[in-house]
Design goal:
With about 110 residues, the chain is of the alpha+beta class. The protein is about 15% helix and about 30% strand. The radius of gyration is 14 Å and the shape is globular. It starts with 9 loop residues before the first strand and ends with a strand.
């Protein structure tokens, strides 16, 4: 048996190219049935892996993405990729109330 560092709930890997990949070990807290990572935006432009919890993800959705149905969000962490596409890095972190770390790959 192998020891895993984060929960046994899910593992994911996204191959960016032949030299780069993002991998993730998941301990599900908010969305145990969804939220597999790494998360990829709908257009495939941004890949993000997150360790933590976004406490105000519903408020971020309401403020920045009012047209989006919150029920289509698979995980609280999905808002990071969406917000990054919307405002880019210069103002990404201030609206997020969090306990997290994240890593991006942007095409």
């Amino acid at each position: 048996m192998k020891l895993r560092h984060r929960g046994p709930d899910a593992s994911g890997c996204y191959l960016i190219d032949q030299h780069n990949a993002l991998a993730h070990e998941r301990l599900a807290i908010i969305s145990p049935d969804s939220g597999a990572q790494p998360l990829v935006t709908e257009d495939g432009e941004v890949i993000v892996t997150v360790n933590g919890e976004i406490y105000n993800y519903k408020e971020i959705l309401a403020e920045y993405f009012p047209e989006r149905n919150p029920l289509t969000i698979s995980s609280d962490c999905e808002v990071i990729g969406l917000l990054y596409q919307e405002v880019r890095m210069h103002s990404l972190c201030p609206p997020i109330i969090y306990s997290y770390s994240f890593l991006f790959a942007d095409s």
